[in-house]
Design brief:
222 residues; alpha/beta; Rossmann fold; Arc Repressor Mutant, subunit A; 5-stranded parallel beta sheet
């Protein structure tokens, strides 16, 4: 499972990143808010761990950015701020856990583990089985193959999500422009490029295309 860590204090960043990696998590660590937003825009994470007092834009602004993208990934604030007003702001913005510095690594392990169990327990009703041993969790908005997550950009995820919502049926280019790209000026070649990138991350047969008809994703054949 993949975690984005925003922490500008190098000692904390290195120790937390190394510890979480030793527990089996994949960690992307950044030291400022702008870099965090860039990472969020380009890939999927199972958990955000955010310090508040960081350069460029603070952790509260990063949370606002996450919510503006309608991302429901759990958020943990990890900070030395202990004022009740700061805590209230964090929870009001949508954070799910608050870890005060300094802390024991064992406490970090427990809190991360609890969030992962709470948000990523398997609910069969939310899992759509797809052709080629792939599955899509509609609640968590994650694409997996044999239980391993496929790392998609935000727009790639939207495209897969829309095709899954129209399972086994071709979706036309004009419909994709309207529903996924919200009628923005995008060339058909750009849509084909997104499809190609998804196929490169999955398989050449994951998204089926038919000339002048569109694209589709097939349900798992029983």
């Amino acid at each position: 499972m993949k975690i984005l860590l925003l922490e500008d204090e190098l000692e904390y960043q290195e120790s937390v990143s190394e510890y979480l990696t030793s527990l089996g998590y994949e960690v992307d660590a950044v030291g400022d808010g702008v870099a965090a937003c860039d990472k969020i825009a380009s890939g999927f994470y199972h958990l955000f761990i955010l310090d508040i007092k960081v350069p460029n834009i603070n952790g509260f602004e990063v949370i606002k950015y996450i919510k503006s993208l309608n991302i429901d990934t759990p958020i943990m604030i990890m900070t030395s701020l202990v004022d009740i007003n700061d805590m209230a702001i964090g929870y009001e913005l949508g954070c799910n856990e608050y870890l005060k510095k300094p802390f024991e690594l064992a406490e970090l392990k427990f809190r991360v583990g609890e969030l992962m169990r709470k948000y990523y327990s398997v609910d069969d009703k939310s899992v759509v089985l797809l052709n080629g041993d792939f599955s899509f969790n509609t609640n968590k908005r994650t694409l997996l193959k044999n239980g391993s997550m496929i790392d998609l950009s935000a727009k790639e995820l939207e495209l897969v999500e829309y095709l899954v919502s129209n399972l086994d049926a071709y979706v036309s280019i004009p419909e994709l422009k309207e529903q996924v790209w919200e009628n923005k000026d995008i060339e058909e070649a750009d849509i084909r490029m997104h499809v190609l990138k998804i196929r490169n991350k999955t398989s050449s047969e994951f998204i089926t295309s038919k000339r002048r008809i569109g694209y589709k994703i097939d349900a798992k054949k029983v």
